[in-house]
C-alpha cells in the first residue's frame, strides 16, 4: 500500500510559528492547480502498488473550492490504483468551514477532516496570529461533527502564559465534542519565523520546556482516561481512528509528494520538490520535475527507523534491525540503549524497544543518542 500527498501552498495569513512552505498571495492559484494536475500525470508510473491514502496538506488546503479539490482528485483516481475506500484527508482551518462548505465537502470524496484548531482561547490564537477566533474554532467543530465521523484536530501546548488549567480546558473541549483523533504539538520556535523575531525583541516570552512537559503529561492522562491510544508521540486516536496517512510515514511505506516542497519516498530513495511556487509552476509547464533525489544509505535508513519507531507504539524491533541492517547495528543499539533502560525512559519487551511514559517527551533526543554515526 502507498499514499499520495498534495501540498497546497497558500494561506490567508502567516501564523507566527510556521516554517512550512506557503504564500499569502493567491494570484497563482489557478496556475498552481493546473501544475499539480500536470505533476500527477508526469509521475503516474512512480507508484505501482495500491494507493490507500490521499492527503491534502499545506499551507491551507481549505482555501481551495470543493470543485478545485475534485479537479486534482480526478487524475489521481484515473491514473493510479486507488483502493475502494481510501482515506482522503483535507487539512482545514475553522474560518473556512462554514455550514455550506462543510456540507459540500461531505458530498465530495473527502472523508476525513484535519482541522487546525490550535486553541479554543482567543489570547492564544491572537498570539499565534491565527486567522480564526475561538468562536469559529468551536462552531466549525460543532457543525463538522454533524457530517463527518472521522475528524482530527490540532492543538498546541507549551504556549507562553498558558497555564495548566487552560491547557486542560482546551483538551476537555475537544473531548466534549466527541472528537476521535487529536494531534498535539509543543510550541516550537523555528529559525526565521515571526515568532523567533518577536521573542528576540522581547514581545513574546520564550516557551518554557518545563511548562510544556507538564502539559504533555496532563494530556496523556486525560486522553488515555478517555479511551484514546497514544500511538505516536504527537498523535492520539480512538481505536479505528488512527491516521492511516501519517502511520504510513512512520512505518516506512511508500508515498508520492505532489506540489512545491512536497517530499516522496520509494523505500530507498527520498526526493523533494523545489519550495518556490513560481519556479515549480515554470518547471512543470516545461514537463520537467523540479525535484532533487537522494539515495538513503544503510546508516540513514537505520537512523530513520530508530527515530520513527521510538515515536510510535510499534517501537523498534531488534529482529528487524538485525535482518535489515545487520548484527553490528543490533549490537550497537543494545549497547547504547542500556543507559536509557536503566533510567526507565525505555523498555525492551519481546525484543521490541519502546519509550516509557517517562521517556516519551524526550524520545527525539533519546533517538538521536542512538543514531549510528561514523
For the structure shown, list the relevant keywords.
single chain, alpha/beta, nine-stranded mixed beta sheet, 15 strands, globular
Model description:
With 374 residues, the protein is α/β, with parallel strands linked by helices. The protein has 15 helices and 15 strands. It has a 9-stranded mixed beta sheet, sandwiched between helices. Helix 1 runs parallel beside helix 2. It is globular, with a radius of gyration of 21 Å. The model has no long low-confidence stretch (mean pLDDT 96).
Largest sheet entry = 9 strands, mixed
Shape: globular
User: What would you call the quaternary organization?
Assistant: single chain
Task: Look at the helices and sheets and give the structural class.
Answer: alpha/beta
Number of strands: 15
The number of distinct helices, counting runs of at least 4 residues, comes to 15
Strand content: 15-25%
Q: How much helix is in the residues?
A: 40-55%
Strand order of the largest sheet: 7-8-6-5-4-3-2-1-9
Radius of gyration: 21 Å
In brief, what are we looking at here?
This protein is α/β, with parallel strands linked by helices and 374 residues long. Helix content is 42%, strand content 22%.
SSE layout and pairings?
Layout: E1 2-8, H1 29-42, E2 51-58, H2 66-79, E3 82-92, H3 99-106, E4 112-118, H4 122-128, H5 134-144, E5 151-157, H6 164-176, E6 181-186, H7 194-200, H8 209-225, E7 229-232, E8 235-237, H9 244-250, E9 254-258, E10 263-265, E11 269-273, H10 277-285, E12 291-295, H11 298-311, E13 316-317, H12 318-325, H13 327-342, E14 346-349, E15 352-355, H14 357-360, H15 363-370
Parallel strand pairs: 1-2, 1-9, 2-3, 3-4, 4-5, 5-6
Antiparallel strand pairs: 6-8, 7-8, 10-11, 11-12, 13-15, 14-15
Amino acid at each position: 500500500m502507498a499514499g499520495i500527498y498534495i501540498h497546497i501552498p497558500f494561506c490567508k495569513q502567516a501564523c507566527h510559528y510556521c516554517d512550512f512552505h506557503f504564500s499569502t498571495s493567491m494570484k497563482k492559484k489557478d496556475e498552481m492547480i493546473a501544475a499539480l494536475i500536470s505533476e500527477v500525470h508526469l509521475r503516474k508510473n512512480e507508484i505501482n502498488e495500491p494507493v490507500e491514502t490521499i492527503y491534502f496538506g499545506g499551507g491551507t488546503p481549505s482555501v481551495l473550492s470543493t470543485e478545485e479539490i475534485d479537479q486534482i482528485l480526478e487524475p489521481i483516481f484515473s491514473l493510479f490504483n486507488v483502493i475502494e475506500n481510501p482515506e482522503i484527508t483535507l487539512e482545514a482551518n475553522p474560518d473556512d468551514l462554514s455550514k455550506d462548505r462543510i456540507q459540500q465537502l461531505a458530498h465530495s470524496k473527502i472523508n476525513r477532516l484535519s482541522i487546525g484548531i490550535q486553541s479554543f482561547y482567543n489570547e492564544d490564537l491572537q498570539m499565534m496570529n491565527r486567522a480564526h477566533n475561538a468562536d469559529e474554532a468551536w462552531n466549525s467543530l460543532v457543525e463538522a461533527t454533524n457530517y463527518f465521523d472521522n475528524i482530527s484536530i490540532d492543538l498546541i501546548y507549551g504556549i507562553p502564559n498558558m497555564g495548566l488549567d487552560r491547557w486542560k480546558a482546551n483538551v476537555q473541549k475537544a473531548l466534549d465534542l466527541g472528537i476521535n483523533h487529536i494531534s498535539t504539538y509543543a510550541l516550537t520556535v523555528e529559525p526565521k519565523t515571526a515568532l523567533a523575531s518577536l521573542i528576540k525583541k522581547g514581545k513574546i516570552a520564550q516557551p518554557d520546556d518545563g511548562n510544556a512537559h507538564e502539559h504533555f503529561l496532563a494530556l496523556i492522562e486525560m486522553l488515555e482516561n478517555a479511551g484514546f491510544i497514544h500511538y505516536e508521540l504527537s498523535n492520539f486516536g480512538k481505536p479505528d481512528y488512527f491516521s492511516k496517512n501519517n502511520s504510513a510515514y512512520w512505518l516506512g511505506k511508500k508515498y508520492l509528494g505532489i506540489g512545491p516542497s512536497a517530499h516522496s519516498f520509494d523505500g530507498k530513495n527520498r526526493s523533494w520538490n523545489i519550495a518556490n511556487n513560481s519556479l515549480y509552476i515554470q518547471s512543470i509547464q516545461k514537463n520537467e520535475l523540479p525535484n532533487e533525489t537522494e539515495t538513503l544509505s544503510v546508516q540513514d535508513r537505520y537512523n530513520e527507523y530508530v527515530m520513527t519507531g521510538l515515536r510510535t507504539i510499534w517501537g523498534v524491533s531488534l529482529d528487524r534491525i538485525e535482518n535489515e541492517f545487520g548484527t553490528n547495528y543490533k549490537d550497537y543499539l543494545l549497547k547504547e540503549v542500556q543507559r536509557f533502560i536503566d533510567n526507565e525512559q525505555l523498555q525492551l519487551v519481546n525484543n521490541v524497544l519502546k519509550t516509557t511514559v517517562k521517556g516519551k517527551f524526550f524520545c527525539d533526543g533519546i533517538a538521536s543518542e542512538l543514531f549510528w554515526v561514523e
